[in-house]
Design goal:
Chain A: This is ABC transporter permease subunit. The complex is a heterodimer of chains A (218) and B (337). Chain A is mainly α and 218 residues long. Chain A contains ten helices and no strands. In chain A, 78% of the residues lie in helices and 0% in strands. In chain B, 35% of the residues lie in helices and 24% in strands. In chain B, helix 5 packs across helix 6. The chains are: A mainly alpha (218), B alpha/beta (337). The A-B interface holds A 112, 114-115, 117-125, 128, 133, 136-137, 210-214, 216-217 and B 49, 51, 72-77, 80, 82-92, 99-100, 103, 132-135, 148-149, 158.
Amino acid sequence: MNLDYLFDGAHWDFASGSIPQLIVSHLWYVLLALALGTVIALPVGLYIGHTGRGSFIAINAGNAGRSLPTLGLLMLMVTLLGLGLLPVLIALTVLVIPPILTSAYAGLRTLDPGVVDAARGVGMRPMQVLFRVELPMALPVLMSGFRSAALQVVATATVAAAVGLGGLGRLLIDGLAVNDYSRVLAGAIVVAVLAVLLDLVLAFAQRWIVSPGLRASK
Amino acid sequence: MITFDDVVKVYPGGSTAVDHVSLELPTGKMTVLVGPSGCGKTTSLRMINRMISPTSGRVLIDGKDIAGQDEALLRRGIGYVIQSAGLFPHRTVLDNVATVPVLLGKTRREARTAALSLLERVGLSAEFAKRYPAQLSGGQQQRVGVARALAADPPIMLMDEPFSAVDPVVREGLHREFLRLQQDLGKTIAMVTHDIDEAIKLGDVVAIFRQGGKLAQVGTPQELLTAPADEFVAEFVGRDRGIRSLSFDSAAALPVADLPGTLALDEAGRPTGWLMESGQVLPTGGTFTAADSLRLVTDLAISSPVGIAVRVNEEGKADGVVRHHDLADYLAARRAS
């Protein structure tokens, strides 16, 4: 086992199957799954957190979602839907939903009730309370849920290769198939580095969107 | 005027929070709702801006039933101050104060300009504008809370234990400033407190609630102190209510005697102390003017080394004295009349 594959310049030219190209397709799956998962989980989590109705859904969906094996779910989806991007996207989205749903719910539920009471009391309508007060205040918790979803999906998006798609999983699966452990190692390292970089980007984004007033209190 | 017309609030589960309360809160005055915990005072307050709806009965503002009004619009027209201040931690002090004007459609810029002058009004300098609530002390947060409630210049203010989260010294200062502010503004205020001393000090009208959400007595602080309706009220207003009721009586009508020779004066005629037989000069311990209360005069007479309170005019010149037995006669005659 060695780093030859990773440091071979030929593997870094932008061509089909090259590392940069695999990174791009990998990130593409990650972003699609995060976007889709957020679109589904965020409104549901905010609704449950804002109204307090259906909190058992937030808690149980979170737990159930976490215990589903993504690879198994992917195989099931492929059996049902055939090969393609859709089954991969579904499997990854199911992985992304629980942390976002739970953090949105928890972010709102743990707010100081006095502040929410004041928001209503000064005459904000329910949606104004949600978007002008509850959501901005819940952002630190929400962002930590989103970051953990992002980390999980970066690591797990390698399963796309198992059903014939691209992404950094190609390096792992193809490498294993031909006993090229240098290639497997390259795949593992790039995935890890990608995960760390993505988390850094999100940490930076968090600093930018979370009010300094919320940091001052911590 | 805010009117409670036979208002009842029963919570799901059957506990009665407010039990057939009828009450009028006069325009431009401060009405304090006071009572032990669980007496329905906060529930009553929160029915004025429809944070809670009555089970039966009506709440009217200037004769109009609020039940049919749009909740959010109603609340924007009523200042709201709560115990923990309830400031929005993610917004600067200035933007907290600008909240309601922005909701009412003012531009952020206009609202901020107005907010800045309001901050000054509640005793915070402009340097606080850009800070966040977490960077303020409890007393400062409460001032911002009051400024936020005042920002849209609402005719009515609701205050739910606004001063109870700050320490006694700060509270004293806030009381003074608040009274001064109210003197300028003349808002119709409903305030909730569990502290009867605060109620008596701040209220034009005090409504005492008892357990079970019933109104025990409504009256001016003086009425409550001098003529409590029953044992509960008498107990609640406290044992030294006789002395405290003197706070509401001016010393203007109190007859004074001529200055005795034992009162030492400086060249300007200001009292400097009492000449004792031993040749010692003891401090007077304070003086009063005609504008002060009988309570102060009583206190001075009792604490004076010779049992005499000294009155001074505006220049600080001594112009009369009250001996404590004369004071006792005066109080007895006043009681009898």
